[in-house]
Fold this sequence. Notes:
Blueprint: E1 5-7, E2 20-28, E3 31-34, E4 39-41, E5 44-47, H1 49-56, E6 62-70, E7 76-85, E8 88-92, E9 111-117, E10 119-124, E11 133-136, E12 151-159, H2 165-185, E13 194-200, H3 203-209, E14 215-223, E15 229-233, E16 236-237, E17 244-246, H4 248-252, E18 256-260, H5 270-274, H6 277-285, E19 291-300, H7 304-320, E20 325-329, H8 336-349, E21 353-360, E22 381-386, E23 390-393, E24 398-401, E25 423-426
Parallel strand pairs: 1-13, 2-9, 3-5, 7-24, 10-12, 14-19, 14-20, 20-21, 21-22
Antiparallel strand pairs: 2-13, 4-5, 6-12, 7-10, 7-11, 8-9, 15-16, 15-18, 17-19, 23-25
Helix pairs in contact: 7-8
Amino acid sequence: MFIPVCRIKYQEIEIGGNIMHLELREITVNNLEYSERTEVRGKTLFINKEEILEELKMDEAIEDVDIDIAKPGQKVRIIPVKDVIEPRCKISGPGNVFPGFIGGMETVGSGVSLALKGVAVVTCGPIVAFQEGFIDMCGVGSRFTPFSKTNNVALLLKVKPSLTPVQHEEIVRKTGLKLAYYLAEKSKNAQEYKTSIFDLPSPRKIQNNFSNLPSFVYVYLNISQGLLHDTYVYGKDLKTMFPVILHPNEILDGAIVSGNCVSAGSKNTTFHHLNNPVIKELYARNGKDLNFVGVVIGTELDTLSGKIRSSEMVREYVKMLGADVAIISEEGAGNPDTDLCLCCKALEKSGIKTVVIANECAGEDGKTPGLADTTPEMDAFVSTGNSCEIVVVPPMEKIIGCHESIAVLAGGYADSLQDDGSIKCQMMSIVGSVNETGFLPLGCKWV
């Protein structure tokens, strides 16, 4: 059996129990098929639909549930999309993936975990309120979402009408995670995989070993403003928490789960958290041209006092980690722009250089100021695109979900759905189109 190993580090630093060592077994899947048994054979994930539905229907809060398959290049549209989740499970070590939902409350980020690469669980169904988005598997719209390249298991849920909106979202969230875990668990016996290794010593140890390199911290802002605007850390609603320091491995191992349906283009799905490209890039360059000293999870609250408190605490945590530079990524736009500005200002005034990653709401013509707030200290800005840009996507042969919901999606209009089945909408309606971690299918390069 050939097992390639990809080590995401440059130097092994032995510091006893202080190191979090995560081995991620990555099984590449490039096809989905129905079968009598759920398993990976070769590079195909076979799924037993009847068995899965029987398992999911055990939840009495679910009135109806179905699954469907959408593959890259097919003339398929999934709408409205709530969350996207990469199938994950633990093979060994403490805790389990998605702690607080699937596992208990043990810390994740160590041991061996399994990931199905090239596969995504996409939750879909009746929406609670305005927002959410769609995924096109081919055509113009597919260019703007990374999830047109994944083999998608679409989960369509209808909950009991007696449930409150909060309960509705909770059932959809938990069921999506349950399916993602199930698919990974059934794939444990796959023989072909590569292993990526993630380990990071304490900031003090890093600085002692690479004292000549600048220290970088990642300030990971996540929306935390109530129903449809929630993020969960170890199963805890972020809006009820202070900012917190996490080891990057915890994030890559499922400690953060999306509970939000903000503008689909810029929201962080659970898939984004599991595959955060900022964390992976900092890991890859650690010990080479920078010291990666950790991650601070920041809130994006809906009160000014909460925003100020959070930015002050973020600054103190970043100082405590000994960082020279902070990379800050935003989630959402408008109200969260103030959180972004306050964090940037607080850090810069403390002598910590900042680089901001955010999208812009620059109007359909691109001429409107991109942010709802600004500050002079924000002088290093990476744009992930204009979420207000108008796109027209062609009709699809198959719709998974409800086509008419485009009228109430963020970026959609009452007349977005055309007579021929095409859609005219803003970029923000497409899932992941302007994601502010930089997890994008399109971008720029030096020439």
